[in-house]
Amino acid sequence: MRSKSRLYKWSVLAVVFSGLTCLFLYWLINYQPTLIPSFIVQQARQPDLMKYPEARRCAECHQDIFEAWKKSRHSVAWVSKNYIKDSEDRTKEKCLPCHIPTVVVPGVKPDPRLHQRDDGIFCVPCHVRDQVMNGPYDLFSPPHPTRKNDDYRLSKFCSTCHQKTFKEWRTTGSNQSCQSCHMKRGEGRLTQKFPLSLLHAKKEVADHSFPKGDLKKENLFIQSSFHKATLLIRLVNTTIPHRVPTADNGDPRLYVSVTFLDAAGNQVERDSAILSPQQDTALSFQKPKDLEFFAPSETQSAQIDVRYKPAWSKEKSDVTHLTVTR
Amino acid sequence: MARVFRCSIILFISLTLFSGIALAKDLIVKQPPASLDKLYPPQSKEPKWIQQMHKMSGSFGGVFVNMKEGDWVNAEKKAQAFARVYEETSKLIPEWKDYFDLKAVKEFAATVKSHDPAKIGKASAPVGKTCGKCHGEQSVAVWTRYHWPKVDKINITDPVTDKEFKYGKFMHQISGSFYGVTVNFGEGQYDRSAKALRGFKKRYMELKSTCSKCHTNDGVKQFFVGPPIAKAFDNLKKELAADKPNPGVFWKNIGTIGKLGCKKCHLTHRSYAIIQENWEAK
């Protein structure tokens, strides 16, 4: 009985001690990391992390961010079939700096890299600079040195490669940054590797899948009317603070298709217009674009369909449609 | 000074003659050796071969610039640099090693130390000859292979039919609709001409996307597919909607599209594309 009670006491003490130790470490790591002796930190360093590791190596700790990035277009910047085709088997020099950047420095055209090309645009080019892991937080990380860098919250960071879109966005005067829509933040942990994952406080983590945002009918104002021998369609991009579609070198498109019908509902004629950045016909933010179509005399009504095609696919998705009568 | 000037003239004439000798024959444009691939993207980070050429011409030309200025210290440095880069270059493409004359280059570099423009001019001639021979026989091939992207891999979705065409076939679609405009106009079928114009304009303007497949600079689009072309299309549309279209206005605007767009683009791009097509056909 006595030995059992002693064991119980020691167990309770051990649990309390462990708990206090964890609390102390939590406080130390999150609030006073400078108190940790540097020789201990140096022991925990993993030097290969600063020598241009593969994305999979980063995933050993940052699993969630890695999984999000895998879904992004950035992760397939070098291996996407569409890119390989459009770049003539990757021989087009102009594509290389942004599809396989060595280091991304805001506003500076990157040098293309010769190694680890399959990872495309991945963790290292964006986050490792001068042998230090850069990011939006000032935090303690034993495996690698870190540096807080506010560039990661600014559109200018993205402008390194998305120059045209950045210029379009700047003219709108919007207070939303690229990251506001394409790297939305949610509460989570930066690392998933136990036990460090638990010792780091939860933070706002940006979505590294870089969603392009689906164009919806709510984003567009559309109005149409028949005139003598024409159908006029007015389109306005009402909510998106850059051109729609937008791209520096890709060729995403909005297709505005019109089917002219006679009184019996039979097709008289079909016509279409392409709105694309490469043809200088994309929709500017809150500026009306008027399209004029020739309407055959027997036309009684017209069906208008607006569809979107991203740069990397032939699939078109419906955005909106309407019917107008003469 | 007069002596230096005379020697420069002699040198210029001799280099011109050597270039002439190298080019005074039929030019056969063969594909460059595959070993050159490693000196151009994507195998190389940068276009190293052309950079190597710049290094050579910069140091070779530098000798004569300094010689003219009487700056013999820098002339000698440039001559040494040239000899070094020349030798380095001679090892890069094994198939082209016979173009290089290392003995002549060494003699040239040694002669520069004499500070005698006449002797230097004479010693430069055999070196210049090696440059001229290789350039004459290989420049066009290298430009065609590495500096002109191929169009045969470009697929274009026809904005009229929504079908995908190879670049060459798409060009036939454009010319087909172009003739739809002009032939119908000539026959007085203005409605048909107007309909063909709508298709022709869509296909023509699709080329803006095609240009952007290679060119990052929007200025190129302004050149071949820019505002004067757009204005010509608008003028044609207006004229064809008139009760009695004016042939003078019609043909003037057709001429604008033909001369500013079709012709200039073809003059710039077709020659290289034809060579590439021939290589592919092999």
Structure commentary:
The complex is a heterodimer of chains A (about 325) and B (about 280). Chain A contains 11 helices and 12 strands. In chain A, strand 11 and strand 12 form a beta hairpin. By secondary structure, chain A is α+β, with helices and mostly antiparallel strands. The radius of gyration of chain A is 27 Å and the shape is elongated. The longest helix of chain A has 30 residues. Chain A has 3 domains: about 30 residues; about 160 residues, no CATH class; about 110 residues, Immunoglobulin-like (Sandwich), CATH 2.60.40. Chain B has 2 domains: about 140 residues; about 130 residues. Helices cover about 75% and strands about 0% of the residues of chain B. Chain B is built from 10 helices and 2 strands; from the N terminus they run αααααββααααα. A two-stranded antiparallel sheet of chain B has the order 1-2. In chain B, a hairpin with a 6-residue loop joins strand 1 and strand 2. In chain B, helix 6 packs antiparallel against helix 7. The longest helix of chain B is centred in the last third of the chain and has 35 residues. The relative contact order of chain B is 0.08.
